[in-house]
Q: What sequence folds into this?
């Protein structure tokens, strides 16, 4: 352990701002990227299900109205 | 083969004067904007002049790049070339040469006048001419590459600049380093050697990439 | 030699393979990243010259290395796509590009945050920084070029071509600190004979690097799965997998 106390850890020997800025930006971007990747997959699933349901409805409609 | 294509390109350029005159006019207009923008202080202008000339040259070559393959693509010339399975490479080389002759070379010839207007001193002037002479062919090669990549794109235009300007950056860095060294009375043969090396490397590899980009774009 | 790779060229097989791989990659990436970064932030010693700012190294160096190896990976995929016309290689180029762009942006931003206290400036136009910035533009160029074509296949091919051309920049970035002696310091962990980093700092660095690597692979898996689904959505197997009727 390199630091005596938690506030010591936060201060980082006077360079706290730069270090926490770097780590904050890094993890902010990484979380954003991961979130975007997950969102893409989820959006595709949703879109795909809607398309399938729509195709199903069109099929049913055609079968009932025009025998 | 190359000469036939080159003659064709030059005849086309002679007919469509706007294609190569507009970038030249643009070059001069950008240059006149700088003294108005940063103030007509002679000492300041003298220091900044080579860089200004380089940036103006870069922008005007970029302006000329957009129309490089447009007409040939729309007329179906490129499709014919690719379908006939010959001459694509010669066509690319002729295109590059014609582009340099119509935009690069006039810029090099114009720059002494411009340097005079901006009051560049002698050492920096020679360095500027040498770097322009070595750098403008490279600008032409890269803009041919960019034009070939975006040839059949629906939203070309600004995309071409986005692709090509980053590739211009190393060129600009070494050219301005050479001019800066010349201005301080130092030797700048190292920077010139790197410019030559980049030019030769690009001349060897880029036409291959351009030819395959043309093939992809019409397939 | 590469026979075992051949089944993976089939989109359906690759989709399942990535699906199996993804949870393990993500889990191990997060664990290892946590270990590496906490070690670097809390337990690693401070540098006698750079004091505590050296702790930025544990994200700066991995992300910078990753930005280059991701680009190389993308260029290899692009080359395969252009030469052998493998569909999934084509899709993976576009799957990799945004991930590489984010890693490049991270390396630039952390470098800026490290440069301010150590060099006294956020940005310096030296060779390493400039070539890294060009790498970011290349990633963005690949993405933008793909988006500019209404025909997705042509767009993908042209973007792949740009990715292959841009690979010239990778050795330039790597050797820029040796060719031009400017502000940026030389390589520290790529010299295996005499590593210039003390083991107490090297270990957390290597662990963080591994964590970043696994995270990149996990995200590539995830995006590749999405890309495969999107391109193959009219095939029966997608319908069967996603619980169609």
A:
């Amino acid at each position: 352990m390199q630091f005596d106390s938690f506030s010591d850890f936060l201060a980082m020997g006077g360079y706290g701002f730069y270090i926490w800025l770097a780590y904050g930006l890094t993890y902010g971007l990484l979380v954003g990227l991961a979130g975007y990747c997950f969102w893409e997959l989820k959006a595709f699933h949703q879109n795909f299900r809607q398309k399938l349901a729509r195709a199903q409805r069109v099929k049913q409609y055609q079968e009932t109205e025009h025998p | 083969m190359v000469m036939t294509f080159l003659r064709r390109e030059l005849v086309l350029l002679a007919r469509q004067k706007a294609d190569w005159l507009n970038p030249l006019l643009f070059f001069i207009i950008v240059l006149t904007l700088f003294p108005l923008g940063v103030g007509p202080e002679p000492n300041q202008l003298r220091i900044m002049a080579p860089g200004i000339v380089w940036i103006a040259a870069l922008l005007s070559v970029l302006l000329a790049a957009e129309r490089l393959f447009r007409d040939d693509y729309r007329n179906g010339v490129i499709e014919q070339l690719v379908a006939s399975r010959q001459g694509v490479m010669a066509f690319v080389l002729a295109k590059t040469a014609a582009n340099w002759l119509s935009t690069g070379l006039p810029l090099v010839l114009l720059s002494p006048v411009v340097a005079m207007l901006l009051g560049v001193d002698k050492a920096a002037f020679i360095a500027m001419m040498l770097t322009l002479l070595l750098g403008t062919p490279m600008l032409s090669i890269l803009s041919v590459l960019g034009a070939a990549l975006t040839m059949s794109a629906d939203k070309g235009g600004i995309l071409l600049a986005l692709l090509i300007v980053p590739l211009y950056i190393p060129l600009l860095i070494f050219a301005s380093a050479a001019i800066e060294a010349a201005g301080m009375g130092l030797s700048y043969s190292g920077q010139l050697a790197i410019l030559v090396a980049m030019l030769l490397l690009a001349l060897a590899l880029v036409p291959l990439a351009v030819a395959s980009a043309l093939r992809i774009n019409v397939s | 030699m590469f026979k075992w790779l051949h089944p993976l060229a089939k989109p359906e097989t690759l989709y399942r393979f990535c699906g199996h791989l993804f949870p393990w990659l993500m889990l191990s990436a997060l664990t290892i990243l946590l270990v590496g970064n906490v070690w670097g932030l809390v337990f690693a010693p401070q540098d006698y010259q750079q004091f505590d700012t050296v702790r930025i190294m544990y994200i700066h160096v991995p992300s910078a290395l990753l930005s280059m190896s991701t680009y190389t990976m993308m260029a290899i995929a692009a080359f395969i796509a252009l030469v052998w016309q493998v569909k999934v290689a084509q899709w993976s180029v576009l799957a990799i590009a945004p991930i590489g762009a984010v890693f490049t942006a991270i390396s630039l931003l952390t470098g800026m945050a490290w440069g301010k206290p150590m060099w006294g400036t956020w940005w310096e136009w030296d060779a390493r920084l400039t070539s890294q910035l060009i790498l970011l533009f290349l990633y963005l160029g690949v993405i933008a070029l793909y988006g500019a074509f209404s025909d997705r296949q042509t767009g993908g091919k042209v973007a792949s071509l740009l990715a292959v051309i841009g690979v010239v920049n990778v050795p330039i970035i790597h050797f820029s600190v040796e060719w031009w002696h400017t502000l940026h310091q030389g390589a520290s962990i790529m010299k295996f004979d005499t590593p210039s980093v003390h083991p107490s700092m090297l270990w957390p660095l290597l662990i963080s690097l591994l964590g970043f690597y696994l995270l990149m692979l996990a995200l590539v898996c995830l995006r590749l799965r999405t890309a495969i689904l999107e391109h193959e959505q009219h095939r029966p197997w997608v319908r069967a997998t996603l619980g169609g009727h």
Observations:
- The first helix of chain A runs from residue 6 to 11.
- The mean pLDDT of chain A is 86.
